[in-house]
Amino acid sequence: MNKKLRKAVIAGNWKMNKTPVETAELIGNIKPLVKNADCDVVVCVPYVNLQTAIQCTEGTNIKVGAENCHWAESGAFTGEISPQMLTSIGVEYVIIGHSERRQYFGETDETVSMRVNAALKAGLQVILCVGESLEQREKNITFEIVSMQTKIALQNVSEEDLKNVIIAYEPVWAIGTGKTATAKQANEVNSFIRELIADLYNTKAANAFVIQYGGSMNAENAAELLDQEDIDGGLIGGASLKAPDFAKIVEAASR
Ligand code: PGA
After folding, report:
1. N or C end of the chain, less CB within 10 A?
2. Among residues 98, 100, 107, 251, which one is catalytic?
């Protein structure tokens, strides 16, 4: 992380965990531990917990995000939630294109791109997830995959709107497996993404652009990962469900 150029963002991705009551409890525990953070702190929670999370974080430095959103404003899309519905209750962030959405729910680069554009139009901050599978890494096509996912997702995003986008590089083989990419492996891909942003936009936009790492980031390995020049924060799954662990990661990003 380069503190002169960028402010780190630590975001929890709670996935399909916690009820509203448990949400209030967990946020209550996180709040005092991260109040002096020198980085942005976000919790992305299941839809039914958003309102509780917003109430519990009022007046604090914790921002609230959703884990997905649809591309339409409203309509016949049973089971979906629109970006406008999210902003109407005070949600500020949204994760888009998480590998679990791509893997289990038929999300494609095209639908990711539509969701990214709709979320930006509604005024949300987007955390766009990209990353290769183990098979793709072994075939040596990591850069091609990450490049394609990034280019398609950002195809209609202006330089102005890019200011509201963060990319989370999450190698699929490292998610929830306890298998973290080494700091060198993670930084290599994050640097590649930054160069790609410079090519697609310009160096100024690339230097200001926040690129997180995600995939088994935890209280123990966070400092080493965040020490890398191009790792500007983390998208944290498992470890974000434990207040002390999440707080330690926030602390590492604040140093
Ligand atoms: P993990 O998940 O930290 O549990 O590996 C990260 C993510 O999926 O965003």
Report:
1. C
2. 98
pTM as predicted: 0.98
Q: Which residue has its alpha carbon closest to ligand 1 atom 7?
A: 237
Q: Is the CB of 234 under 6 A from ligand 1?
A: no
Q: Is 92 a catalytic residue?
A: no
Atom of ligand 1 nearest to the CA of 177: 5
CATH class of the region 9-254: alpha beta
Q: What is the DSSP string of 60-106?
A: SSEEEEES---SSSSSS-TT---HHHHHHTT--EEEES-HHHHHHS-
Tokens coding 180? 């973290």
Residues in CB range of 100: below 8 A, 6 or more apart:
15, 175
DSSP calls for 12-40: EE--S---HHHHHHHHHHHHHHHTT-SSE
pLDDT tens track of the chain, all 255 residues?
999 999 999 999 999 999 999 999 999 999 999 999 999 999 999 999 999 999 999 999 999 999 999 999 999 999 999 999 999 999 999 999 999 999 999 999 999 999 999 999 999 999 999 999 999 999 999 999 999 999 999 999 999 999 999 999 999 999 888 888 899 999 999 999 999 999 999 999 999 999 999 999 999 999 999 999 999 999 999 999 999 999 999 999 999
Domain ranges, ordered by start, for the chain? 9-254
**How far is it between the farthest Cα atoms of the chain?**
48
**Structure tokens that stand for 191 in this block:** 């640097």
The neighbour count for residue 10, using CB atoms within 10 Å, is 29
- What tokens were used for 7? 């402010």
98 counts as catalytic: yes
